[in-house]
Hints:
- This protein has 454 residues and is α+β, with helices and mostly antiparallel strands.
- The protein folds into 3 domains: 12-87, Uridine Diphospho-n-acetylenolpyruvylglucosamine Reductase, domain 2 (2-Layer Sandwich), CATH 3.30.43.10; 94-205, Uridine Diphospho-n-acetylenolpyruvylglucosamine Reductase, domain 3; 208-406, Vanillyl-alcohol Oxidase, Chain A, domain 3.
- 27% of the residues lie in helices and 25% in strands.
- The chain is built from 13 helices and 19 strands.
- It has helices spanning 21-27, 48-60, 111-119, 135-140, 148-151, 179-184, 221-234, 267-274, 276-279, 297-304, 325-337, 385-400, 426-439, and strands at residues 12-15, 41-44, 65-68, 84-87, 94-97, 102-105, 123-124, 158-164, 170-174, 195-202, 204-205, 208-217, 239-247, 254-264, 288-295, 313-321, 345-350, 371-379, 403-406.
- The strands form 4 sheets. The protein has an 8-stranded antiparallel beta sheet, sandwiched between helices.
- The longest helix is centred in the last third of the chain and has 16 residues, at 385-400.
- The radius of gyration is 22 Å and the shape is globular.
- Residues 1-9 have low confidence and may be disordered.
Amino acid sequence: MRVDAAAEGPFELVWKDDEGYERRRRELCWHERVVDRRPRVIARPRTGDDVVTAVRLAREHGLRIGVRSGGHSWINAFLEDDAMVVDLSRLDSFTVSPEARTALLEPAVENRKLIAGLAAHDLAFPVGHCPSVVVGGYLLAGGFGWNSRIWGAATQSVTAVDVVLADGRAVRADADHEPDLYWLARGSGVGFPGIVTRFHVTLQSLPVLRFTQRALRVADVDAVADWLSGVVDRQGRELEIEVAFRTSEDTGEPEILVTAVAFGADPAAAARTLDVLDEVTCGATPARVVEPVECDFDRLYAYNEGLYVAGARYAADAFSTQLDFRSLLRRAATLFAAAPAGPSFLLLGAEPAAPPAYPLLDLPLSLGGRSFIACYAVWEDAGEDERHMTWLRGVAEDLDRVSVGRYVGEADLDDGVSGAETCFAPEAWERVQALRSRFDPAGVFVTPPGWRTR
């Protein structure tokens, strides 16, 4: 049965047999590896009330619902044959209360837009490392962003969520009202049984940022591993170190790109934090160096954007491990050596010796290891899909043997090595599944194929 969009409200409905449907379907996905799953209709609401209308329309037509905030799901988790996709991309505004140090965020607000708006009030939020990611999926997956060792995971700054449930009811969930739904909204990721139309969050003071970057040869990994292991042993919570194994854009050779960002209350504090990089001798000579410099988040994003290639095909997986950082770096060098030629990369981080300011208590997440590693397969030719996916899943099989958990926001839950249960502590997984059955007993909301116990 065809439904007239104008009769259903002010938002757009694009049905499978409409002109322009395939363009809209492909535009839902951030990258070019769009899975061959075709929803019956794409709903594009403008308001929370529109979302209620969309859910009720789906119920009338017996359709399951996939939820899309910004389309950065590597596996296109929101796409399912003969379902409805609720595309939240037009819910992209936010309001700030500077004196209260709080904000209301709609789900399609981009990281870069949010942090720029907050900086105008000398405020900040633990936004994600990729500028074009939006807060919807990011916060539901836990939100491991900049300065998280001081500010905590971004989801720990969420005080309430406005949610549309599978039966079409709109509710607000917080620690006192619908606390189980609130718990799910802070880490269950693609398993969340509802549509968040607004996040209520607390804010932080805008820090001073100081940045440096060093590119070293992968052949020198032993010396680099010894150096970074010593740095991590001395590293305070105010310093974030990110290590990428990638192919240099300048030379075409494999390199280890070490990015360090210090967060301080003033320039002197940020400079002192960054000094730890030179307190440990590195036995390898960098091929190039970006000398320490103060920067804002926008410039930080500009440095980080080089890892992400526009117009490419992507697949990813991400693991937490108890391996020490030296061992993980050496393991990463071996895994990266087997990567097909191109812009694929591995991204690593280590927990400093100092404990985080906000431990991950009573959250669904399983990320409790000493180190973190994510694998990103990146390529352009669809004919190379099997080759790159084989490498990704080979890396995943290797890391799965030393993993203590996976990051639900970037886990390969399409048909990967492990199912969704590895993204949660065992007791949390049981609770997630029980609460999903309670809030969505008919299984209205779409989950990816890997959302099952292996």
